[in-house]
Amino acid sequence: MQFINIANEGVKSLSPYQAGKPIEELERELGISNIIKLASNENPFGFPESAKQAIMSQLNDLTRYPDANGFELKKTIAQKFHIEPNQITLGNGSNDLLELFAHTFASEQDEVIYSQYAFIVYPLVTKAINATAREIPAKNWGHDLDGFLAAINEKTKLIFIANPNNPTGNFLTHTELDAFLAQVPSHIIVVLDEAYTEFTAPTERVDSFALLAKYPNLIVSRSLSKAYGLAGLRIGYAVSNAEIADLLNRVRQPFNCNSLALASAIAVLNDDAFVAKVAANNRQEMQRYEAFCQQYQLDYIPSKGNFITIDFKRPAQPIYDALLHEGVIVRPIAGYGMPNHLRISIGLPEENSRLFEALRKVLNLQ
Ligand SMILES: *Cc1c(COP(=O)(O)O)cnc(C)c1O
User: Fold this and answer.
1) Long-range contacts of range 203-208, CB-CB < 8 Å, 24 or more positions apart?
2) Is 332 in the pocket of ligand 1 (CB under 6 A)?
3) Which of 28, 53, 96, 260 is the most buried (most CB within 10 A)?
4) Is 125 touching ligand 1 by the criterion CB < 6 Å?
């Protein structure tokens, strides 16, 4: 029996998600220690103290199911962003939410639009439900919104936009998104995936909740995995029109967010000092990366995220392998159709210095 023959049509064209290499795996493979990982856009400051305390306070209650409605977390999010709790949907990471959007709004006959080089979970969730993927060729590695508009037809159900995008770091301004949304028919759901929005300077940031008030077909999705440092706990939230949230909550698994994640999320959303520290480090260190690239004439894609993607103008896999031998894990993105690029997450100052040193050695830079 070839089980692939009985899989859903869309599943046949999928390959498993390639995650960043875990530190322990490299330790085992090469027998080296003192490894740094700049591969998964994780928070370099480690797990926030505020979240640790929240977790300790939950330990005795872990025998109970979590609050299926996430009442306290929704209250926290609603107060922070001046929205209503009934506009919020909680997810087991925002990846869970992306899947929820597809399940709730698209089916086999429908088309889903996203960009070439956009976050790989969009094709994954689209193909898993057998919907038709309309991948729009990128413009300067980013979203070509005019191309999106031209691809809309009567079958279009869902549009995914990552802003900033991963793995390219491209960014669309509030004005560009506003102009785009004004032209999208109101029965098409537009998902604005803002997993990295906290890294964008407040003056540049898209006021996505203002857009939401203007365009009820918009869903804004956020993550606590990046700036907030909770990647291992899996928690994210979507903000939308209340009617959309009601639909999403019908499809959502009732206990998709665990008690520790719920409690930690409340703690870090109130921990402005932690996020400010993380964002400031990112801004400062991003400048060092840009200066490094400029000094050695390495071509990079300007990024508004917590990572930078460098074009080595030749297959990047050997560079990646050589960096592993220097104890530095970065991210190959050949799976995105970018075999000459590596994506590097911005780390702590000393981690970034190690990366610079390793790259100088590997590339023989003088
Ligand atoms: C990291 C990332 C996410 C968030 O993932 P979680 O499931 O919340 O950990 C969502 N979208 C993009 C574009 C990302 O890079």
Assistant:
1) 204/171, 204/173, 204/304, 205/174, 206/163, 206/172, 206/173, 206/174, 206/177, 207/174, 208/177, 208/239
2) no
3) 260
4) no
- Dihedral pair phi/psi, residue 242, rounded to 5°: -60, -35
Q: Could you tell which of 95, 168, 233 is best to mutate to test the pocket of ligand 1, judged by most ligand atoms within 8 Å of the CB?
A: 95
pLDDT tens profile 299-319 = 999 999 999 999 999 999 999
Tokens of 269: 């959303």
Predicted confidence at residue 154, as pLDDT, reads: 98
CA distance 276 to 271: 9
Whole-structure pTM over 0.90, yes or no?
yes
Taking the C-alpha atoms of residue 132 and residue 53, their distance in angstroms, rounded to an integer, is 45
Q: What is the pLDDT of residue 18?
A: 79
Q: Measured from the CA of 41, which atom of ligand 1 is nearest?
A: 1
In the reported structure, the alpha carbon of residue 180 is separated from the centroid of ligand 1 by a whole-number distance in angstroms of: 23
What's the confidence (pLDDT) of residue 287? Answer: 98
